[in-house]
Amino acid sequence: MKTAELLNFYKIQHKIFGVCPNSKEIFRLSTCHIYTDKKPEHDWLSEIETKQDRVERAFQKFRDKESLMLNIAGKKQAGRIVKKFDTVFAPRNFNPNDSFGIFNPVDFVIFDGLDKKKLRRVVLLDSFKNRPDRALQDSIKKAVTQKRYRFTTLRINDNGKISEE
Fold first, then answer.
1. What percent of the residues of the chain are helix, what percent strand, and what percent coil, each to the nearest 5?
2. Which among 24, 71, 129, 156 could disulfide-bond with 133, CB atoms 3.0 to 4.6 Å apart, if both were Cys?
């Protein structure tokens, strides 16, 4: 077979496509490993490719673990930094992620333990206010103590419509 014929043979193989019956992926005939009765024995190139695949999988596993560890370390570091500047929640051992600012008639509603899916209590947190606000806050405390309340969740959809759950 002449060199030109051989090159033409490979060019034609590069233009012939198939669909794998198992994975349904499209492939080129030129990338197939064609054999008849039984799979050919591994040669030196097959061994190198197998070892390369193994190294790549191990490296990817390492990168995944590294990424996870950096993510966890970053969250811990961020938590430490926030505690340095947080004068509201950290001194009272509240997680800022458990708090919702409403600012009137109290500053924050804290669902203590919500972030860890272990709700322990609901806390109404407020700074000291003047007398009229204090009377309102005391009435809220009394209503909560006597269990004269109900919880309603309202959702606002993308169109601005409010629905009650």
1. 50, 15, 35
2. 129
pLDDT one-digit tens code per residue, 122-133:
888 887 666 677
Stretch 23-32: mean pLDDT, rounded?
87
The C-alpha angle 7, 8, 11, rounded to 5 degrees, equals 90
d(CA 47, CA 134): 79
pTM attached to this predicted model? 0.44
Q: Where are the domains of the chain?
A: 88-164
What gap in Å lies between CA 94 and CA 86, rounded to an integer?
10
**Helix (H) or strand (E) segment spanning residue 18:** strand 17-19
Distance CA 78, CA 95 (A): 13
Report the pLDDT value the prediction gives residue 51, as an integer from 0 to 100: 94
Q: What span, in angstroms and rounded, lies between the C-alpha atoms of 165 and 100?
A: 19
Mean pLDDT of 29-51: 83
